[in-house]
Amino acid sequence: MPTNVSNLPPVRRWVPAPVTKEDIDWADLTFVDLAKAKTPEGRAEQVRLARDATHRQGFFYVINHGLDKAIVDRMIDIAALAFDDVSEEEKIRYRARIKETGEYLGYKLPQYWHIANGVKDRIEHYNFPRDVSRREHPNVLRPFLPEVQRIVEFTHRGVLNEVQKLLSLGLELPENTLPDLHPFDETNHSFWRFMLYNPRSQEEEDKTDNVWMKGHADHTSFTAIWSQPVTALQIKDWDGQWRYVRHVENALVVNCGDTTEYLSGGYYKSAVHRVIKPPSDQDGYRRLGLYYFHYMADDVRIAPLLDSPVVQREGVNKFIVGVPPVQETWRKNRASTYGVTQLERAEDGTEYEVVNGVRVTHYN
């Protein structure tokens, strides 16, 4: 991707929140360095780091990926336009038909997901298809679509496919095993998201114990999150404790999703995470971020990679009762039901629903 942003359409600057100075219980996450992975010795080290991090926590940072910070900062500026410079009428026009289609494309408006005790979310997002030309977009975003398309492709191919090569080798399979299941072509329905968390009233904070989004695991193969400074993301760590994810300038936070856990027979762990109210010195700031949700090709079945010696040694947990669904069925059913169905309560206090024969747990 080009690093010169001076010849691009002008955009108003987003002023980020200051980094918190509070004493925080940070998660100890691994750094996967894509620059070091370019030499044989460094590649062997990064395979081990990516494998162990995904097996233990399902979360890790990716650094030295090759994208200039100025481009990421500019994309945040563009993201703000989607929420601050689009009228409510136009947002409704481009509203995603999530329950009807099983896809998030377009706006998810606030007050859609139930959080707790009658309180619904204060989260907005605008979602682009992997190929941004597949649909029409709000007027204010149209001059920036070529830039969005470039960062989508970079995140898919330049980051996640490269990480998947390391994780394929971690399963003792050919390095292109996982990337080949996640092509950047018309069979793939990965999507890009601008997401904005708006502050809430104290009454809503009290009713939800400060939880902005319930603990959950993503139904994707992976999610890539461009790090931003508002401290609110927590992971359910390897020891069962909730810990915060620290902001690292120009890094990506990559989390393993359910699909990769199923492909690896449970060896790679789907990362449970949630979003809660930020610390007091960031109170009142809006949390704006860039996300990429990574799927396999639509016709691939979500079944364990039984050729992997690691999967064979570690035992296979098939997770899914009956015939595994193909990616298209899985992604649409999970998207259409999340946050809007009646959940059952388990003995341990968690809530759950059954989708495609899989028990999907929600942590409140």
Textual characterization of the structure:
This protein has helices at residues 40-56, 69-84, 88-93, 98-101, 145-170, 177-181, 202-208, 258-263, 309-314, 327-337, and strands spanning 30-33, 59-63, 106-108, 114-116, 119-120, 123-129, 191-197, 211-217, 222-226, 233-236, 242-244, 252-256, 272-276, 287-294, 344-345, 351-355, 358-362. It has a single domain (30-362), classed as B-lactam Antibiotic, Isopenicillin N Synthase, Chain (Jelly Rolls). An 8-stranded mixed sheet has the order 1-2-12-9-14-7-6-3. The protein has a 4-stranded antiparallel sheet with strand order 8-13-10-11, with no helix packed on it. Helix 1 crosses helix 5. It is globular and about 55 Å long. Helices cover 29% and strands 22% of the residues. Strand 15 and strand 16 (351-355) form a beta hairpin. Residues 31-135 form the Non-haem dioxygenase N-terminal domain. Residues 204-281 form the Isopenicillin N synthase-like Fe(2+) 2OG dioxygenase domain. It comes from Lactarius akahatsu.
Sequence-ordered SSE layout with sheet pairings:
Layout: E1 30-33, H1 40-56, E2 59-63, H2 69-84, H3 88-93, H4 98-101, E3 106-108, E4 114-116, E5 119-120, E6 123-129, H5 145-170, H6 177-181, E7 191-197, H7 202-208, E8 211-217, E9 222-226, E10 233-236, E11 242-244, E12 252-256, H8 258-263, E13 272-276, E14 287-294, H9 309-314, H10 327-337, E15 344-345, E16 351-355, E17 358-362
Parallel strand pairs: 1-2
Antiparallel strand pairs: 2-12, 3-6, 4-5, 6-7, 7-14, 8-13, 9-12, 9-14, 10-11, 10-13, 15-16, 16-17
Mean pLDDT equals 92
Helix residue percentage: 25-40%
Low-confidence stretches: none
Overall geometry: globular
Full CATH superfamily name: B-lactam Antibiotic, Isopenicillin N Synthase, Chain
- In terms of DSSP E residues, the strand content is 15-25%
CATH topology: Jelly Rolls
Count of spatially separate domains: 1
Please state the CA-atom Rg, rounded to the nearest Å: 20 Å
Main β-sheet description: 8 strands, mixed
Query: What's the CATH C level?
Result: Mainly Beta
Order of helices and strands: EHEHHHEEEEHHEHEEEEEHEEHHEEE
Our measurement of the CA-to-CA distance between the termini, rounded to an integer number of angstroms, reads 40 Å
**CATH architecture, please?**
Sandwich
Strand order of the largest sheet: 1-2-12-9-14-7-6-3
Structure class? alpha+beta
